[in-house]
Amino acid sequence: MTSADTTLAYTATEMMTVVSARALTSADVCFVGIGLPSAACNLARLTHAPDITLIYESGTIATRPSVLPLSIGDGELCDTALTTVSVPEMFRYWLQGGRITVGFLPGAQIDRFANLNTTVIGPYDRPITRLPGSGGAPEIMTHCGEIFVTMPQSRRSFVDKLDFVTTFGHGQGGDHRARLGIRTKGPTRLITDLCVFEPDPETKEMTVTSIHPGIDRDQIRDATGWPVRFAERVAETAPPTDVELETLRDLHARTRRAHAADT
Amino acid sequence: MTSADTTLAYTATEMMTVVSARALTSADVCFVGIGLPSAACNLARLTHAPDITLIYESGTIATRPSVLPLSIGDGELCDTALTTVSVPEMFRYWLQGGRITVGFLPGAQIDRFANLNTTVIGPYDRPITRLPGSGGAPEIMTHCGEIFVTMPQSRRSFVDKLDFVTTFGHGQGGDHRARLGIRTKGPTRLITDLCVFEPDPETKEMTVTSIHPGIDRDQIRDATGWPVRFAERVAETAPPTDVELETLRDLHARTRRAHAADT
Amino acid sequence: MAQFMSLGDAVAALVRDGDTVAVEGFTHLIPHAAAHEVIRQGRRDLTLVRMTPDIVYDQMIGMGCAAKLVFSWGGNPGVGSLHRFRDAVQNGWPRPLAIEEHAHAAMANAYAAGAAGLPFAMFRGYLGVDLPAVNPNIRRVTCPFTGEALAAVPALRPDVAIVHALKADRAGNVLIEGILGVQKEVVLAASRALVTVEEIVDDLGPRSPNAVVLPGWTIAAIALVPGGAHPSYAHGYYRRDNAFYLGWDDIARDRASFTAWMKTNVLEAGPDAFAAHRRRLAVAA
Amino acid sequence: MAQFMSLGDAVAALVRDGDTVAVEGFTHLIPHAAAHEVIRQGRRDLTLVRMTPDIVYDQMIGMGCAAKLVFSWGGNPGVGSLHRFRDAVQNGWPRPLAIEEHAHAAMANAYAAGAAGLPFAMFRGYLGVDLPAVNPNIRRVTCPFTGEALAAVPALRPDVAIVHALKADRAGNVLIEGILGVQKEVVLAASRALVTVEEIVDDLGPRSPNAVVLPGWTIAAIALVPGGAHPSYAHGYYRRDNAFYLGWDDIARDRASFTAWMKTNVLEAGPDAFAAHRRRLAVAA
Fold first, then answer.
1. CATH number at residue B182
2. Which InterPro entries would you find in this protein's record (chains C, D) (predicted)?
């Protein structure tokens, strides 16, 4: 992409969404979460990855929504799916069966090895903030071929130590996944509003490999609760192209219109 | 039933079928086997038990075939079913789930406790006659509320000791089922071409409780490979009524016509 | 065999104080009308089971029906937190809420095990995470062939399952289409099942030979409640009321506004109120 | 992603000597044409897996393709014995046949475990019977909550699954309706799946949202073989040829008549021969 492809201003969330979308290909079978992952996956489908297979945990397989769902099981997902299976079947034959190439996960807290907490802030028995809990995340992280984590970056959420390990990323790093008998790659990218992290090949610590345009290293350090490591060669993330932005904005506009019409 | 209801001559197989049918009610959910059980279940449905639910192990639930299937999975069964589920679901949710009130089973060999052999005559590793094997029988016997066994009687098949226990009926008798943790009744009737056996309440040995018209005790003894026990009060089986016979013969005639038309 | 009843009679007949009750529906077909009836009838000390306690359980918990919650994801889908659920867990309001917490894979497998009459469910999961340390119902079982340790959880066998479905025929056979969730499993796993439906028809009509149909003899009671899934939805009938989910965040954030809303819309209302949702949305569709 | 191929190319590409091959179809949708192609290509030393080895495996066993059979019921449904299967087991003709024998519940659960990526299947069964004494792949696993001992068998993960289905769209998505058997499970459990279909269409068309569809990326190869299930049947296309099953008893009883029949109808024929069955029966329907 050249700078000539990018003439429009964009938000940090749009940057995150576009970077997430670019990581996907038509060959992927993707386990899609609600929110940014759903926007990213459908953006990929509407741009460079028209044949990508999107699966939502509600059981909808190869769905092609024209608007983004608010929930993981909006009717739109079923209406445009190749088929819809039960939730037990989704978790058994499709997720645990190893048929998903990539999953997206968010977290309320993340640590340097991309372990995630979505359970509780404070002690489990006397929580300061009770969060939603595990959902599908622990097994999505185990069974998908690889995982992209998407989270806006802040010291509150990028922490030195999780209050609770809801979802095992690279654990204590190194070969920890393999030692637990997990055969998938785990988190291969952490896409934030500032940069992209990838696991160090040896230690598996999440390491900055690409920085979004206009962001400097101190901003990243300030937003991270551990001493950030940068890769030897750090790229500058290509900004969203006009085509990417317009497609994404059209998708959001269609979604807003459709949801307004429902009320 | 009075003798006035019966004016037609009938065969031993018709007698077995009619007796089997009479044991069923509209409240039953019945796991149906091919052959005589299928004829009996559909005869019941077409006479005194119109609301009986018939399930075939091919996955067809609440089926109402107008002709008898040759196989456990003829299209007729699916075409007339309320719904058809997969075979794993049939064995898990419906059979093991305890939703079947009565199952029919045959055997190549049976012993006095209604254990069945459908695996092999002779040693397992060097069979004289290799039989079809287990099929669904072991778990049908365990999971259905009760079991009716239907077999024509002969010394070759009613044996003192099975060559192989394919299917556990009352085991060694007494509380053997309960000791294995089985909570269902097991074989409650053994319907032959000569008589009806029921398990002794204590010993669970299959005991003659009703003898078909025109059959005497010696005929039963001669056709049984163990010393037959007779209940204190032995009834005479009511012969097939004309309505039963005509309904059964119509069913078989329809079946023959349909199968002939298929070729 | 399924009995056709009014919703009030069905809840009175099937749901008792202290029962383990699973109100299910994975985004689709959530039986809000039936849950409201349970609230109106003042049931107490329930163990509520549900993969995704969302608005329906926020309401039941906030109204004090529940002593315990068994769940795997508690939030307002696509919106944020469940304020009543949080208030119960963090502050014990209106009463303390015990929790037994799982992941989705565990709950889905546990319902399937319940439907299959098994004592436990087995799957590959819970690796490297903290939940087994706080939930004694997460154990391990070893594969007798490979030696691999797999996750084990007890089967879910609720006293009562409550679900919404599309339609029932006169014999009480119930059709479900679209997003299936664990609707079939929870009905088969439960001792008693209550199904609310959009309509009752003479015949389920032309359908796939493999349509998801629950036979009448697997169901205890069926109640006709058109619109009864609102603000969830019923495939082919009306759509999800996403605006309601967004609006719930404000209603439930505050104890007083929650209580006032429940008084007007649940305690002083009845199942017929749901019919309006059906009509409104059917017209818009 | 599914490749569309001729049946000959598909079998040549997917089935190798020594493979574990599951040719499935529970009465319905038995892929006879594909099995004939395996016979014609002279595959040897196969471990054949199938719940109900009926005519299709009588033919493969009688032609010497199989070194081992994994099964739960071996007979000609509604007719009687499989003479070629018997001859192999009792007399080692045309070659000795090792057997691994199960009950249906075990096989059905083992395919489901394979599809689910599990190392073993667990169910309540095999109580009080002799099969565990002769099959070391039947073991026990203990419920970590109740202490109950349940049956365990290894998951089935065949190298190749071969099934017949109704139709495929141009993207290779495959529709199955009617009696489903273990068709979905065996495809998902196998390393490579070969599917023969009655027709290839632009679009699968109007269908239930919950129709049983195998996505193209779960399938290795699709071959168009109209009538390819004969003498089994294809829901909505043609009916089961019950007369053929009855007639097979005489053909297979004798080694010479079997061999002659196979020469004429399999070795010297091709997949196109199956189209006649489709036409003949479609007219009669």
1. 3.40.1080.10
2. CoA_trans_fam_I (IPR004165), NagB/RpiA_transferase-like (IPR037171)
